[in-house]
Amino acid sequence: MSPEPVLSARGLVKTFGRVIGLDGVDLDLYPGEVLAVIGDNGAGKSTLIKCLTGALTPDAGEIRIDGDEVHFRGPLDARAAGIETVYQTLAVAPALDIASNLFLGRERRRPGVLGSVFRMLDKKGMRDEAATALSDLGIGTLQNMAQPVETLSGGQRQAVSVARAAAFGSKVLVLDEPTAALGVRESGQVLRMIEEVRSRGLPTILISHNMPHVFEVADRIHIQRLGRRAGVITPQSHTMAEAVAIMTGAVTLEDRVAAVDDEDRTGHER
């Protein structure tokens, strides 16, 4: 028996006036998997992810978490349901230190009277937990949790954002183009973090234009085209060229399946 999806969407529709952002899209994310979402510009990737994370409300369709239907009125509702998102803009506070960024909006107060009456923050406790969160993801280049984020490289800032999302995401982690602005070495570090998150059992949705990265870490690949789901493939069932062909409309997933069947039939006849 296959496991139930952690996150599922059925028949999602979203329009912007006469522009159709989503046209009846289905999506399933299963426990412990990395699901990549790919598509050309205007395919509906961003609209789909915004609907799943509460930034947009779909006009029709349903979203379920662990089988229970949910209705997000905003990103805070999605976060409360266990969905954490790392947007391409990272949403870090450059002037604050690493620990403060990890606990941004979730600051911990000191125990007892110091926290309840004088409202003092537990800075040491947050720094210790931040160091543990980064260590758990295999990030050894950041040692000083009091270091301002504005002094970090792009890859290190991405690491802070991913660590924050992984630390608080209890159900789903969503990564929007996490390697888009990074070099080769820093991109490799982010991909290793994604694999580490998967090893901890936290399912991840990865939105990316980088096909080598998608095929390196994804378990399944959801392809968007013109507001619809063009198909779901795996790195084992299709090549990068075939994924791009489906994404651009050069072929359909049904064409590819029919071609494979023809090849098998021809081989048997021979």
Summary, kept brief:
This protein is of the alpha/beta class.
What is the approximate shape?
globular
Note the beta-strand portion: 15-25%
* Secondary structure: helix percent: 25-40%
**Residue ranges: pLDDT <50 for 5 or more in a row?**
none
Q: Give average pLDDT, whole number.
A: 89
CATH topology type of the domain at 7-94 and 155-241: Rossmann fold
How does CATH name the architecture of the domain at 7-94 and 155-241? 3-Layer(aba) Sandwich
Order of helices and strands: EEEHEEHEHHHHEHEHEEHH
Number of helices: 10
Please report the total strand number as a whole number: 10
CATH superfamily of the domain at 7-94 and 155-241: P-loop containing nucleotide triphosphate hydrolases
**Euclidean distance between termini CA atoms:** 37 Å
Major sheet size, sense and barrel closure = 6 strands, mixed
- Secondary structure class reads alpha/beta
| Cα-based radius of gyration, to the nearest Å | 21 Å
Protein name: Sugar ABC transporter ATP-binding protein
InterPro entries: AAA+_ATPase, ABC_carbohydrate_import_ATPase, ABC_transporter-like_ATP-bd, ABC_transporter-like_CS, P-loop_NTPase
GO molecular function: ATP binding; ATP hydrolysis activity
Organism: Cryptosporangium phraense
